Amino acid sequence: MGEVVLVTGAARQLGGAFVRRVLGDPEVERVVAVDAVEPASPLAGAVFVRADIRRPAIGRVLAEHGVDTVVHLDVTGTPPGGGGRAALKETNVIGTMQLLGACQKSPTVRRLVVKSSTNVYGSAPRDPAVFDETTPPKSLPSGGFAKDAVEVEGYVRGFARRRPDVAVCVLRFANILGPRLDTPLTGYFSLPVLPTVFGYDPRLQFVHEDDVVEVLRIAAGDPVPGTLGSGTFNVAGDGVLLLSQCARRLGRPTVPTLLPAVTWAGSALRALNLSDFSPEQVRLLTHGRVVATRQLHEGLGYRPRYTTAETFADFVRSRGPGLLPPAALARVVDRVARRTVPDPVSGIRT
Description:
By secondary structure, the protein is of the alpha/beta class.
């Protein structure tokens, strides 16, 4: 008998992509796709169950289908169905609690994979240069999706203690980009002009949507020989990009603005539904965040196919040209930089 995999958040872009990928796995007997709304694209081959994970009915779904592997993707920073922050928190936190309660009572569940985020580390001025999975944040996130992710991971750790027979894998994804995915960060990068925080040029990491789907598939399957197969793993493409480099590659001009003004602009963009420019995203675009991925390579046996730069390049190709040709913009920036470098002898800027 093959695995019976239940996937939450299946109506979302990432959830649907994972369902389609895992349907082709010969070791999988059946895929049960769960969401509170119908998927925009049909999930041919999967058993779709319209259910809200915040309700006890999710326990009946596990029992009826004899689910042995649960992949929990319904932890997100985008409100479901255009709802507000309250609905989002309920889905992320209350939904996770309800799902874990159902898994705890299920005698068939033997593997749990949870989508989390590197947002749990926060973004602060005194952060370490690189976070690994054991590095505590300088200050815990005080709100938004980052706080939800912290709470979700806390409940998952409690579940792992109560059900030591279940292999639990938590995947902390860096900012996900790709040609098909829409996220708050892709909304920001799609603006014709990018507001930035004056005096800051943060380091950013990205992970390609295809790598996200593949690492989820590996985490949901039997462990690769010689690897752990369970635990907590940072997932990001190799390397980093500065925000200024991202803007140049997009061909989009930046508007350096004082931090209070950027916060105000973010509120205005959210009110106009132009971009979900949340306070946590403002902090990311101020201080940045970089994580180590050695545990992913050694513990799960996976190295992302796309580097951070390659991931961003694929995203840029999908968005079309910006206001300024990237090559011309890069030449102008380089020319300005050369003119502002002081002469090594006189110290005079030319």
